[in-house]
Structure formats: C-alpha cells, structure tokens
Amino acid sequence: MTQLARSYIHRVDGLNRFIGRLVMYGIFVMMGILLWSSVSKTFFMPSLWTLEMAQFAMVAYYILGGPYSVQLGTNVRMDLLYGEWSPRRQAWTDSLTVLFLITYLGILLWGGIDSTIYSFKYGGERSPTAWRPYLWPIKVIMCTGIFLMLLQAVSELLKDILRIRGEEI
Amino acid sequence: MSYDLIAILMFSTMMLMLLTGQRVFGAIGFVAVMAALLLWGDRGGYDLAFSAAMKLMKWYPLLTLPMFIFMGYVLSESKIADDLYKMFHVWMGGLNGGLAIGTIGLMVLISAMNGLSVAGMAIGATIALPELLKRGYDKRMVTGVIQAGSSLGILVPPSVVLVLYAMIARQPVGQLWLAGVVPGLMMAAMFILYIAIRCRISPELGPVLPPEERNIDRAEKLRLLSAGMLPLFIFASMMVPFVNGWTSLVESSAIGAMAAFLAAVLKGRMTREVFENSVRNTLGISCMFMWIILAALAFGAVFDGLGAVKAIENVFTEKLGLSPWMILILMQLSFILMGTFLDDTAMLVIVAPLYVPLVGELGFDLIWYGVLYTITTQIAYMTPPFGYNLFLMRAMAPPEISLRDIYASIIPFVIIMVAALTIIMVFPQIALWLPDYVYNK
User: Fold this and answer.
1) What is the pTM of this model?
2) Alpha carbon of B103: minimum distance to chain A alpha carbons (Å)
3) Which of A43, A79, B114, B338 is most buried, with most CB under 10 Å away?
4) Among candidate residues B191, B160, B90, B170, the one with its CA nearest the CA of residue B131
5) What are the Cα distances from residue B430, in Å, to B228, B333, B374, B418, B425?
C-alpha cells in the first residue's frame, strides 16, 4: 500500500513537474504574441488573431502550470494559526482540508467536461469575434489541466498521510 | 432562509476555512461551489466554477499580470538596480538624511518598473539597508523608509493591485493607473518631507557622508546619473505608446517586460540562474494569483446571484440611516482593521468583491475609490501584527534589526499614509485630474 502510494506520488509529481517546466516558458510565447500584435498594428494591418491567441496562451499557462506551482508551494495559505503548528499537526489538518480542494476541483472539472462536450456539438462552438476560432481546443486543454491539478491534490493528500504515519516519501 | 443570512453564512464559512490554513483558492472555491449547488441544484450550480474560468479568459487586461510579475523578477534577480542606488548615494550624500531621501527616490523609480511591492522591498533590504546602517543611520528610521517606500510599488503604475481591482470593479485599468500617479508622487513627497524635517531636528538620525566619500570626480558622477536613465527608459517604452494610443495596455506591458529583459541581457546580468529563477517564480506567482481569482470570481458570482450587495446597502442606509460618506469612512476604517490580521492576498479577494459594488451603489467614483483602496491596502500591508511587508522585512533584514524595531519603525509612516488617504478622500481631484486630462483631451 505504502509502495503504491509512493509510486503514485513519484509519477504524478514527475509528470506535473515536466509539464510545468515546459509551460513556464509560455511567458515568452505570450510576450511574442503581444509584441507581434503591437508591431503589426503600428506598421501594417492589425492582426485579428493576436488578442484571443494571447488569451488562450495565458489560460494554458496558468491552468497547466497550476500543479507545478502547488509543488513549488507558491499558493498562499493564511498562516495565522497554521504557521504556528507542528509539522505533524499541519499534515493532519491538511489531510482533511485538502478534501475541500479536491471537491472544488472535481466540480470545476465536471463543469469543464460538460462545457467541452457542448463545444463539440452543432458543428463546433466558435468564439463570437472576427477571428471566430473554435473553442474546443482550449477547453480540452483546460480540462486536462484541471484533471492534472486533481491528481496533484491527491498526491498532496498521500504525502500528508505518509507524513502522519512517519514514513518516508 | 433570507438572502442576507445566506451571504453572511457564506462569508463566515469562508473565513473559518481560511483559518485552517488550506490553500486560499481551495477554501474560497469550495465555499463557492457548495453554495451554488445548495442554492441552485445541479442545474446551474455545477457549471458556475468553470464559467468563472471562461470569464477570466475573456478578461483581456489580466494578461498584464504575468508580464509585470516577470518584469519585477528580472529587475530584482538581475540586480540592475544596484547602479541606481549608487547614483542616489553619490548625489544625495551631502544632506542630513540624504541617503534615506535617496532611498525613497530609488523606490519611486523601482515602482515605476514593476507592479508589486516585493521587488522594491528586496532591493531596499539587500542593497540600501546595509549601506545605510554602515553610515550610522538610525535603524528604526531606515527600516521604516524601506517599508514605506516599497509599498509605493502598488500605487505607482504599473500596479498589479490596480489590475486586480479593475477586474473586480469592472473599471478601465488605464484610467486607474493614471489615477495612481499623482497620489503616489504626493505620498513619496510627504515621506521625503518627513525625513528632511526629522533629520533637521535631530541630525544624528541621518549623518552626512564623510567628505572623502563625497569627493568623487565629475565624470564618475555623471556616469552614475546615466544609470538613472534605465528605469526612465523602461517606463517610457511602456507608457509612451500606451498614452498616445498606439498600443493597448496589454501590449505595452509586453513591451515593458521585453525592455526589462533586454536591459538585463545587455548589462550582462542575465545569467542562467537569474533566468531560471525569474521564469520559474513568474509561473509560481502568476498561478497563485490566477487560481485565487478563478475561485474568487465563482464566489463573487454566487454573491451577485443572491443580490447580497443590495441587501447590505439597505441595512446601512435604510435601517441605520447613515449617509454615504459615513459608510465610506466606516468601510475604510474596517478595512484597515481587517488588514491588521488578514493576509494581503486574502484581503484583496475577500474585501474587494464585497466593498467595491457597495461603493458603486452609494454613488462614488470607482476610479477614485481604486486609489483609496490601494492606499488602504498599503497601510494594511504594513500594520502589525500581520503585515506582509513586516514579515518580508524580517526575512530579508540583517539580524541586528529585531521584530520590535520593525514594528516601531512603521508608526510615523503609517500616520503619513493615513494623512495622504484623508487628503485624497477630501480632494478627489488629486487622483482624478490626470486620467481626466489624458482621456478627455
């Protein structure tokens, strides 16, 4: 059982770390799109696609990068009481409260999948702008990211359980 | 159950969950989705969270957030601000308290290049603070100077706090930023005035630099002055195309990020390590903000659906018979009070969705309130026992500065900031004339 938990943590963390380190260079993709947008606007025809493409890039950036940010521990907590507790007490509390997080992500994913299925219907949902891109690719990316976030939250739960039992991770 | 009661219940559940120390976005998101499911069932309830994600995507100015975070990290990690500090050091050293005044100047320049207070804090605590202490400056005064100065980062454009405020208040970011310029400079001037007067009365707080340190030849002095051109150049590359309407705000932010990155590369400061740290931290902090906004939007949507704001407004105006101004003053006071024990990010996402629509209902200008809101956040950042800046300072300051010193150091500066807040409340034109001038010409 412990072995299984360890191998899950190892795999999920490894996968999310890989994806996170890949999308972190997305900052340059966003910058590139926006710079092209300013250049093309000033010197030739304004591009139709830049605005939405930048938005899609941003969404992919933060949703796919989310699990890695959990690993990095950058997600703020209110540490008024939490900061004072012993690591064991923190692990106990976390192992219970991470269920809130899992519930939230689960419902987020539920809504996401529903919305993605809708996007495939009626010949594909398009964005109501001049460029009219299909919306399903970004929704699929969002669902994937939320699913990875869910996997990461479970991994955090397993880590806390191992910590409570005093075992190595 | 009445809607006001549901709203109060949601609010208190969220506070309770935040206290457990779970990640802020998880706690807020959980309360939002559970409330939606209980109120509206699985039709309309479950897709609320995801539609918040779609709403967030369509909010174009949010793209400035990763750009400015990246800019801030490039500036603080690559240490291109060192020369700036030297410039103030050489040019202002001859005055009593001159280095402290120079530090405020440094903070204003750094604030004009990034949108959070962290970068200013890091630069101030690691570069300016040790130098000031070595020169015999009073440690309480300089600790206060750096904390107060770095808090200007969120008021002087570009400001991340105002971007977030703009999203919640549904106001244009450009006007909000311009509204922050004059109050920011006014506050910096008030800080400088305070230091000058204080050091005039008791010169031992800020001794003059010894002459051998000041007698640097003119060529070197001029070379250092050119270091000051760098932030002006970065700031101009961002604001000039924007104010002239050549580029949108978001495009300007990308230009600014690129300019900061290029400046670091050209100065030979963009090492592998600096690059890795800036890119990785940008992802981490951007994700932190975005996921919290995502959860807070869902929470706000439930609140909107309940009509909770209207209900709260009725309690104040109808039942208690208060005038709008009384309510506004009460709100600012409660805001400062909350800021003393709430984490800054939590404040931003909890307080804003509740207060901002209320201010709108009362008929106040939301651009003007954005400035008040930001200054209040600044004060909250700095007030004990729980201020984000206080802890950062503790983490970065040299060991001879105790937590007690840090607490004591901010008192005069908080008084100045409250004074500035009052002045802007009484004279809204201080904040509003610049955006009016630029947008109505």
Assistant:
1) 0.82
2) 29
3) B114
4) B90
5) 27, 21, 15, 15, 9
